[in-house]
Amino acid sequence: MTPKPADPPFPPSSRLEVRVLYADTDMMGVVYHATYLRWFEAGRGDYMRRRGVSYAAIERSGLALPVVEAHAVFKKPAVYDDLLEVSTRVGELGGARVRFDYGISRGLELLVTGHTWHAAVIRGKGPIRLPVHLKNALLASETAPRSER
């Protein structure tokens, strides 16, 4: 039996470039570990915007998607002035939760992988099922032309 080729770890669902600022580094001159969680958030917001979903509009409706779990694996360090790419995709979509998967790379080098789990909640009321329109948007292809991003 021929083994099935592995899927690439991060399909081109959303790609966002970030430049490492001096303020992103620690006293050892490498990117501070918590900075990657900020870049996960930036990638997640970009992913949603490219699918016509405004997180600000979601929150104005009373819905929120708080992070309930975060995980990161640090393979290689990034340093000041590196140009990085944050790749983001939906890894799993359940009834009331969604997992976003991330890869942060410098050129062809994969530096960090990770994921965040988010629960759908109505402020002041608690968890709910993810609205169908939101599920559909999260799984959709990109809608915004490149010039509008």
The total tally of domains equals 1
Mean pLDDT: 89
CATH topology title: Thiol Ester Dehydrase, Chain A
Distance between the termini: 45 Å
- Can you identify the CATH superfamily? Hotdog Thioesterase
Largest sheet: 5 strands, antiparallel
CATH class: Alpha Beta
SSE pattern: EHHEEEEEEEH
Side-by-side strand order of the widest sheet: 1-4-5-6-3
Helix coverage percent of residues?
A: 10-25%
Beta percentage is 25-35%
Query: Structural class per helix/strand content?
Result: alpha+beta
- The count of β-strands is 8
CATH architecture: Roll
Cα gyration radius (Å): 16 Å
Topology:
Layout: E1 15-19, H1 35-49, H2 55-60, E2 63-64, E3 67-74, E4 83-93, E5 97-106, E6 109-119, E7 121-122, E8 126-127, H3 132-139
Antiparallel strand pairs: 1-4, 2-7, 3-6, 4-5, 5-6, 7-8
How would you characterize this protein structure?
This protein is of the alpha+beta class and 149 residues long. Helix content is 19%, strand content 34%. The chain has a single domain, classed as Thiol Ester Dehydrase, Chain A (Roll), CATH 3.10.129. The radius of gyration is 16 Å and the shape is elongated. About 3% of the residues have low confidence.
